[in-house]
Amino acid sequence: MRIARTFQTAPAAVPKENTAKYLDSALASEGFSAPDWLVPDLEDGTAPDMKAEGLENTIDRLDGGVEFSGEIWPRVQWAYDDAGLRDRGEEEVRTLFEAVGDELTGVVVPKVGRVADVERAIDVVERAEEAAGLPGGSMELSVIVETAAARSDLRDIAMLGNEDAHGGGRLAGLVFGPVDYTAELGGRAIDGDRPRWDGLLEALSNEASANDVVAIGGPFDKLFEERAGVTYYNAPAYADQVEREAAVGLDGSWSLYPKQTVQANRIHMPTPTELERDVSKIERFNDAKAEGTGAVTVDGQMVDEATFKNFANTVETVRTIHARHPDQTRDVYDEALVDRALDLDTDWQR
Amino acid sequence: MRIARTFQTAPAAVPKENTAKYLDSALASEGFSAPDWLVPDLEDGTAPDMKAEGLENTIDRLDGGVEFSGEIWPRVQWAYDDAGLRDRGEEEVRTLFEAVGDELTGVVVPKVGRVADVERAIDVVERAEEAAGLPGGSMELSVIVETAAARSDLRDIAMLGNEDAHGGGRLAGLVFGPVDYTAELGGRAIDGDRPRWDGLLEALSNEASANDVVAIGGPFDKLFEERAGVTYYNAPAYADQVEREAAVGLDGSWSLYPKQTVQANRIHMPTPTELERDVSKIERFNDAKAEGTGAVTVDGQMVDEATFKNFANTVETVRTIHARHPDQTRDVYDEALVDRALDLDTDWQR
Amino acid sequence: MRIARTFQTAPAAVPKENTAKYLDSALASEGFSAPDWLVPDLEDGTAPDMKAEGLENTIDRLDGGVEFSGEIWPRVQWAYDDAGLRDRGEEEVRTLFEAVGDELTGVVVPKVGRVADVERAIDVVERAEEAAGLPGGSMELSVIVETAAARSDLRDIAMLGNEDAHGGGRLAGLVFGPVDYTAELGGRAIDGDRPRWDGLLEALSNEASANDVVAIGGPFDKLFEERAGVTYYNAPAYADQVEREAAVGLDGSWSLYPKQTVQANRIHMPTPTELERDVSKIERFNDAKAEGTGAVTVDGQMVDEATFKNFANTVETVRTIHARHPDQTRDVYDEALVDRALDLDTDWQR
Predict the structure, then answer these.
(1) What angle do CA B180, B186, B190 make, to 5 degrees?
(2) ipTM for the assembly
(3) pLDDT in tens, B76-116
(4) Do residues C298 and C308 lie in contact, with contact meaning Cβ atoms separated by under 8 Å?
(5) Domains along chain C?
(6) Which residue numbers of B have CB closer than 8 Å to A's CBs?
(7) Given C247, C293, C314, which is nearest A195 (Cβ)?
């Protein structure tokens, strides 16, 4: 099980005294503030005239290795309908792999079009990996699904995650980009909010699961609200979005801000109530199973292999996070509950 | 028009004095308690160590013929990612067809994967039918859509319902399996409820209709609720789910329990209000039609061939149920209303 | 940018003294009452025994040219499962193109099935265009998506809008037909309303955008409501539907009635608030851009190229409507705001 609760973009260069300010703070983040995936952003987050500096910053900060606990995935420039941008993107991938390839898990490619365009991006990664002398197949690719063409080809694009697909299965992640997507479709925020694109999210979750790649929701950009003269961080609205994404099985959420990272890291962990409920259901089910019946009723709910798997998912997620971030599980759950989760028999025996 | 209002699974063996208790009661059910499709369950409803007994029970109870008014569709073991389970499933199909094939409409195969896996299941049915000396093409197949792979291939899987498809169109039904499906996608019941997967249900209804196969919703397993110390049958929540399924055009709903069967049989019949409304609209429309206009307004709604077809659907459904279960239509509608429905001219004449 | 805010069907013949009454009033409509696309309806809106008269009326009214400000798109007879109807439809297309082809933008073909059926309709248009001696490729095709087969093949059907597709990209519009669609799927108006088919609308918007064709919502046929003895035009319910369609990026809405046309023309224009908001955001963003940062926060919302495109869409829509209907923009917006929208730099410079 791979952890990708948070996909935090950080502009690679900003017009401040320290142009790597956001990159520095993201790389120094700890605990719940540290994203599982950190994305130094050379695309829309960095101004046109600062792209070169963004690339330098990224290399400078990663060169020689970093302490950072998560995966590092720079986002490069790209667009399915702009060959010039794609050339710049390829150049960025080559430069990054050459200089700091060992520190990276892969690259994030935005604005991909139909499946052939994603295959083109895979070829770019493959050539850059070889040119940099990195181990064959070590560098992965995630794409932002934010064009009508990519949504139309989503099923075929997701299949590029399979080992026998073009490029040997480098595709590792599908990330939703709602702002560009809404603009492409001509959608409107009539009452102030963009449509939620529930159908797309359901399909993203399904196709990612069918091909064992990671699915991540889109950014929430109304970071702050104002009420009666006071501006505050918009915590509830972001949490609502992340909860909806978690419910339909997205693996993680996009973060634009450290507080969003804290929230998404937390929400993509089972709540203490969920963990207590599912640990307890498995415990009671395992007891009942000893008596030899297939369908057992626990709290008025029939438990069969399928229901059981849902409970076991909860426990497996906690175990994976615990192995990597024991401080986080300690923070959220009772020690005794963590121990019960670790000890539990989560095998359904046929 | 085929009736499949209810798809009731009954564990084929349970650890009680009479291990066929649920099978016996389902086979003896009458009136609204009798499902249109009865599914003796050899898969998740029967404990691993009771599979053989479940198979024996099913054969024993069906051998020599039964009075049961509906179709009988055993669910066998199967999984797209487990060859051992598929072998056991094939063995179960062969044994069932050999012993009681004449009593069966077909078999239900769970946990299918991509379209090639469903074709594999079709081949199993075809071989077993031949081995048992049953008429060629007489045994049908329904599958549970409960994996990301099956959802991804849903369009192609549904096309197996066409006569010119692999196996000659044996696929007769598509049934949703939300529990396994949610587990596969990593979905979460954050507020206690699984996501509804509205996109999947809409697609299931569409692809079933496009290929003339039956579409059936998933089980509702919170059979009972407790309030202030009293446990009660969760009638409203199940009815809500069945109504949503009926609205989007699913032909039937999954039942785990006789009271659910009563409710789903009722909800998948037009209500008296719907029948009165649509009979009356057709009557008034037919009168207006005599005056020779294409678009007629009845109650402020324009009625053309398309609207008319919706009204006629209501009437046709009632006629089909009436032909098979006159006791049920008598129970639900005024005798005079049934007579009007039977007498009505539901032909749209171009 | 093409305008298709309204798709108004007008029965081509009705049993009144002037059988072309609705056609005449639609052709004479002005201002917000005039649809962007006017659809003389030879299909469901015209009675079976008045089809010939409907065709005559259409030709008679268009012959010699009309003042009408929008595009004219007759709907002919057709059904994927009825060869006789298709023959009549082909005959209608030929007659129309021969007599008044110069006045038409194209034809609307209903009840199409899978992609092969739409290709068949394209061939009909191509042959009729040639027979009538019209410029090659001048006549377009829009189809009503109202069968399960067309929904199943929607992705491939939409691709017929591309220049390199069958027939050279004649497909120009995809229009939803919810009444026939609901009847085909066996959907039910249990609480009085048909399902909204949100998944289909999302897909329609996406596939239209991916192939640069126009997407239009379905008719709303509850034109009138009665309350306490008074019958009134159902303005709010229609507006709600049109707003939902606009939000998910449909280009226009179906109108059955002049007041619906007024409403849909208005709703598919940005509101004054939207225009003021987006013009102001671009103005402030352009100012901030001069300082050289990629991601700028305006009103607590991060603005990057993607967000910017959404604002620019609003402005472009207003400019397009203004070029064609300056009376409409004058009616809706302050003159000063229109001037700001026209003057604005909406180029995102990389």
Answers:
(1) 100
(2) 0.91
(3) 999 999 999 999 999 999 999 999 999 999 999 999 999 99
(4) no
(5) 6-267 (3.20.20.60), 272-343 (no CATH)
(6) 11, 14-15, 44-50, 85, 146-149, 151-152, 177, 179-180, 182-191, 195, 197-200, 219, 221-226, 231, 234, 256
(7) C247
